Amino acid sequence: MLKLINIHKCFAKGTSHETNALRGIKININEGDFLTVIGSNGAGKSTLLNIIAGTILPDKGRVRINGQDVTNKEEHFRARFIGRVFQDPLMGTAPSMTIEENLALSIKRFGRGLNLGLNKLNREYFRNKLAQLELGLEDMITKKVSLLSGGQRQALTVLMATMFDPKILLLDEHTASLDPEISKKIQSITQDIVQEKRLTTIMVTHNMQEALRYGNRTIMMDRGRIILDVSGAERENITIDYLLKQFSKLRKEDYIEDELVLV
Predict the structure, then answer these.
(1) Contact call for residues 230 and 243 (beta carbons, < 8 A)
(2) Which of 4, 57, 91, 252 has its CA 20 to 30 A from that of 124?
């Protein structure tokens, strides 16, 4: 489903602030895979998602999605088959518009499915989808999104990003800014949708427990490179302590506290 071939990305090249964000990233992700991504600050996690989404283009290398070379295709082109949820619940929705208007915009973005207008049939469809979230949003369909809580808005964003079965779902620390209880709820909603639709998913997380609990494959990044890639039976048997020790070993530094890796 997704292939990254020798991806390089450098910011502020030739200046004192030059940063090699990605250095020779090579990865194949199969259809239906759920990949979790961990790493310290500056490891290149968000840049990786931005390269996949087309928010930024690589300096070198190729990006292929479902066999199609999209290396030089920008974000608006890839939006037809990539859903994305950001850390900030304020992103991904139009706060001055109602819930139903935001859902209608999501339909327009993918350009298929229901008619774009807000009619009786569409509203009933929206209510059924919202009811599945079990947050009472189906009874607030005409309420402005700006009046929702962070958790409600993030749940709405997850729904909008997945309504029409994107080829790839990108989750950019999408529960990090929420309190623990609502974070668990949003993760549960996300997992249910991913499993139901069998979405190919990439989730960046600062939480190692989440990285091992969800999905079927985990990569660890550091300084623009992938330094660990585990899946299958190997992944099922590893612990957070093992990941920390591997990080220290691969980075050739003394044992590092988990805060450094998780931030």
Answers:
(1) no
(2) 91
SS3 234: helix
Which of 120, 96, 116 minimizes the C-alpha distance to 107? Answer: 116
Residue 105: CB atoms within 10 Å? 14
- Side-chain-facing half-sphere of 90: CA atoms under 13 Å: 0
CB-based contacts of 38, cutoff 8 Å, min separation 6: 45, 204, 205, 206, 208, 211, 218, 219, 220, 221, 243, 261, 262
- Residue 112 in this model has a pLDDT that exceeds 60: no
Letter for the amino acid at 118? L
- Contact (Cβ atoms closer than 8 angstroms) between residue 216 and residue 231: yes
- Is the pLDDT at 99 greater than 80? The verdict is yes
230-244 burial, b at 16+ Cβ within 10 Å, e below that, comes to beeeebeeeeeeebb
Q: Which two tokens stand for residue 255?
A: 């044992």
Question: N- to C-terminal Cα distance for the chain?
Answer: 29
In the prediction, which pLDDT does 118 show? Answer: 61
Which residues sit opposite 203 in a β-bridge?
Answer: 36, 171
pTM over 0.90? The answer is no
DSSP letter (8 states) at residue 197: H
**Is residue 81's pLDDT more than 80?**
yes
